[in-house]
Amino acid sequence: MDLSFSGLMTDAVRRHRAGGDLRDICFSLQETAFAALVEVTERAVAHTEKKEVMLTGGVAANSRLREMLKLMSKEQDAKFYVPPMELCGDQGAMIAWTGILAHKHGVRQRFENTVAKQRWRTDEVDVPWRRSRK
């Protein structure tokens, strides 16, 4: 259920450069991206037989995405949750805390060896502080 929006972004830029109305392009971009996110979420709900959906992070502040997911959840007979907005902001503090935990558990990496892995799955990440709890 991985998603890529590179083609969608390329088309939006192309339409803007061709003189398209920026408001229409942005609206269409948002609706199309959100429709894909909702479809993937609906598929996940169906495959896992879960009855709860939670929208978190900064994107949870978007009322249109909340509206679309709430409707899909209702149609799937699932409960829909959004944490209070003060808990749905930038995740920088959580990322920093993860770095502190990693350092405390001996994870070291030279800066020149660090890279962003766009397709890095969370279930592939070694989490030594979770392993040490057992």
Q: Can you put this structure into words, describing what you see?
A:
This protein has 134 residues and is mainly α. The protein has 2 domains: 6-87, Nucleotidyltransferase, domain 5; 92-131, no CATH class. The chain has helices at 6-17, 22-48, 63-75, 92-104, 128-131; strands spanning 52-54, 79-81. It has a two-stranded parallel ribbon with strand order 1-2. The longest helix has 27 residues, at 22-48. It is globular and about 50 Å long. The mean pLDDT is 89.
SSE arrangement:
Elements: H1 6-17, H2 22-48, E1 52-54, H3 63-75, E2 79-81, H4 92-104, H5 128-131
Parallel strand pairs: 1-2
N-to-C terminal Cα separation, in Å? 31 Å
The structural domain count equals: 2
- The named CATH superfamily of the largest domain: ATPase, nucleotide binding domain
> pLDDT average, as an integer?
89
* CATH topology (fold) name of the largest domain: Nucleotidyltransferase, domain 5
Question: Strand pairing plus helix content: what structural class?
Answer: mainly alpha
Question: Tally the helices: what do you get?
Answer: 5
Q: Helices and strands, in N-to-C order?
A: HHEHEHH
**Strand order, sheet with most strands:** 1-2
Summarize, please.
The protein has 134 residues and is mostly helical. It has 2 domains: 6-87, ATPase, nucleotide binding domain (Nucleotidyltransferase, domain 5), CATH 3.30.420.40; 92-131, no CATH class.
